Design the sequence.
């Protein structure tokens, strides 16, 4: 038997490792589940050239030219007209809320302009995420020109050669298309999620693993007191992180501060509470610290991919968008981008903030229900 | 009113029956020793009585509160010291004590912690991390922490495991002092000398209570007769004695052998052949608790298998 290598000893190690791997169900599920989730998400949900972006149509014209332009835009698959009869102010409000990515405005004398050879179309794009709107905006002028030319050809009496349509593009909220403007506010959400969920996910499992849980449970502390005591310190940590990221965003990246700071802070606080409760809920589910961290990571991956942080939310298929709604991060990103870049007011972000409140209520109830008062 | 008055406690973990129909009565001010081999269900019993585990069957009262309904009330008046040190090793001695004082809503926290530190003789080491304490000191700290709120009932789960004899003696002096003040104590242990310090003992094995009563009664009720053999090289007789039906057990104690049996005549017959050896001295001895326990252990069927 060699002193350096013995097959028997290697076998002993291998068998032991395999047995331990098999016993740890969560790790095992993770090893099989993570690649599958990644594959499905990357494969089907993620699209760097997003199509079907929600668009509002503001039009005073209803002639063949306008119809042709709209149909052509829709046929390009980049634009999906979710609102076909919006008033300019309605459309603008939807753009600020992040419900739509584009507003297409066609003037009332569009037919006359087209026949004279100088049709004007205004496309206002939500440029907070330059990647989402870029390709659609770039392709729009050519699509519109072709559509109008086709209509004109059917009427030979018109001068065909005189066609210089102008598609006016307004990149709103981020006219220069600075990627940082989109990423840095979103990073606030991602950093908060990463640190707070991870820290709180081991809150209870640490007590269990160190053996202090038995003692804690034998003393008169209620589950609610334990939960609050466990998560409140991390709300303070989260508050400090918010200040650091916002100051750094302003100083290092000159992120615009369009909206009300108080509104942003209030909304962020709700998000932070939702996160620490999410972490705490994980700690009531996991049995070891290792498991808790694994569950936290298992949660991070889809939340980063589907929240609109890494890839445009509007470009995902509907099922992926629905799935994205279950992550607090998705709602927070809408709020933080709307407030910082678009100067959104309370009524424009309230729907997302209410969703965050819903997470807080739901997660605290779930955590309290999962919390075991006994060692059973 | 009894401090503990529970009937028919039963607990299963999965399919395994850990505690089977155990009833227990403990009078106020009593020190009751809770004995039994490893895995016999002592810890599970204690945990059920302080509200840490829900019994599958059984009912009763602890300090007059319903075992099933008033768990929070029980927790506030019971002190429970876990088998493993379960205070915070990354907190200082004083911080641990303040934490406990606040949880029990003691007024004032400062006064209670200082008094406890003083009593422990740890005033000068109050800022030391609890994790740095030796086994004996950890145990003293744990006892002080779980008696700080003056519980009426103290449940101790193998409190002296791994503690040196001097510390064990001090510990038991403290237990008797607390009992004299009116505290009821239920203490689980493996040590026979500790069982002898209790007013009463309860023996459970594989979840079943086998004996209950004052020490002398438990020994007498076991109906064992014991002889002590002294001499040299006694080990050679062990196989022969063990094979004899009149002998229940043979246990070596240093240079002597304890031979016990339930039938005095049969035991005498078994020892007869040894009398011819001049170098062996055979003497009738008093049965001790350990002999009784070894009998209990070998009698009870192991339901672990």
Sequence:
């Amino acid at each position: 038997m060699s002193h350096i290598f013995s097959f028997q000893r290697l076998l002993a190690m291998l068998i032991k490792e395999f047995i331990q791997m098999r016993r740890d169900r969560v790790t095992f599920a993770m090893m099989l589940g993570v690649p599958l989730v990644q594959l499905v998400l990357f494969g089907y949900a993620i699209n760097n050239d997003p199509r079907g972006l929600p668009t509002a149509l503001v039009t005073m014209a209803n002639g063949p030219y306008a119809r042709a332009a709209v149909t052509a835009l829709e046929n390009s698959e980049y634009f999906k007209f979710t609102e076909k009869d919006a008033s300019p102010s309605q459309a603008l409000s939807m753009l600020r809320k992040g419900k739509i990515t584009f507003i297409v405005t066609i003037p009332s004398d569009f037919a006359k302009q087209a026949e004279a050879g100088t049709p004007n179309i205004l496309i206002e794009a939500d440029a907070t995420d330059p990647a989402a709107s870029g390709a659609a905006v770039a392709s729009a002028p050519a699509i519109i020109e072709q559509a109008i030319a086709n209509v004109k050809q059917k009427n030979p009496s018109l001068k065909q050669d005189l066609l210089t349509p102008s598609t006016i593009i307004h990149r709103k909220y981020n006219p220069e298309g600075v990627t940082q403007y989109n990423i840095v506010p979103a990073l606030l959400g991602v950093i908060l999620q990463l640190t707070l969920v991870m820290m709180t996910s081991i809150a209870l499992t640490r007590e269990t693993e160190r053996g202090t849980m038995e003692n804690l449970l034998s003393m008169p502390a209620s589950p609610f007191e334990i939960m609050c005591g466990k998560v409140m310190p991390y709300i303070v940590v989260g508050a400090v992180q918010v200040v650091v990221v916002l100051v750094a965003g302003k100083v290092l990246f000159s992120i615009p501060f369009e909206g009300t700071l108080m509104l942003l802070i209030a909304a962020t606080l709700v998000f932070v509470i939702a996160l620490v409760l999410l972490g705490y809920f994980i700690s009531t589910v996991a049995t070891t610290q290792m498991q808790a961290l694994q569950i936290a990571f298992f949660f991070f991956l889809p939340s980063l991919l589907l929240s609109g942080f890494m890839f445009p939310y509007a470009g995902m298929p509907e099922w992926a968008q629905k799935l994205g709604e279950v992550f607090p991060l998705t709602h927070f990103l809408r709020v933080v981008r709307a407030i910082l870049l678009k100067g959104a007011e309370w009524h424009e972000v309230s729907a997302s903030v209410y969703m965050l409140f819903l997470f807080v209520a739901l997660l605290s109830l779930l955590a309290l229900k999962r919390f075991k008062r006994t060692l059973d | 009113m009894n401090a503990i008055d529970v009937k028919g406690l039963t607990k299963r973990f999965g399919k395994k029956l850990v505690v089977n129909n155990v009833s227990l009565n403990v009078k106020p001010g009593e020190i009751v020793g809770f004995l039994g081999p490893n895995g016999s269900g002592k810890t599970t019993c204690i945990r059920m009585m302080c509200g840490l585990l829900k019994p599958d069957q059984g009912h009763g009262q602890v300090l007059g509160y319903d075992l099933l309904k008033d768990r929070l009330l029980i927790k506030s008046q019971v002190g429970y010291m876990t088998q493993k040190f379960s205070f915070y090793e990354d907190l200082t001695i004083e911080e641990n004590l303040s934490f406990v004082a606040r949880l029990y809503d003691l007024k004032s926290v400062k006064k209670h912690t200082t008094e406890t530190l003083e009593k422990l003789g740890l005033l000068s080491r109050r800022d030391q991390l609890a994790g740095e304490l030796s086994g004996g000191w950890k145990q003293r700290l744990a006892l002080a922490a779980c008696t700080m709120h003056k519980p009426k009932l103290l449940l101790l789960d193998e409190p002296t495991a791994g503690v040196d004899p001097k510390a064990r003696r001090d510990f038991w002096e403290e237990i008797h002092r607390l009992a004299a003040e009116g505290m009821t104590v239920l203490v689980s242990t493996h040590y026979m000398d500790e069982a002898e310090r209790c007013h009463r003992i309860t023996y459970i094995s594989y979840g079943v209570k086998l004996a209950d009563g004052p020490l002398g009664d438990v020994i007498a009720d076991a109906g064992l007769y014991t002889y002590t053999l002294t001499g040299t090289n006694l080990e050679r007789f062990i196989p022969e004695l063990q094979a004899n039906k009149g002998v229940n057990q043979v246990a070596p104690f240093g240079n002597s052998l304890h031979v016990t049996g339930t039938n005095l005549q049969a035991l005498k017959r078994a020892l007869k052949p040894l009398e011819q050896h001049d170098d062996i001295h055979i003497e009738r001895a008093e049965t001790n608790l350990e002999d009784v326990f070894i009998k209990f252990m070998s009698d009870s069927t192991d339901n672990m298998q």
Q: What stands out?
A: The longest strand of chain A covers residues 53-59. The two ends of chain A are 48 Å apart (CA to CA).
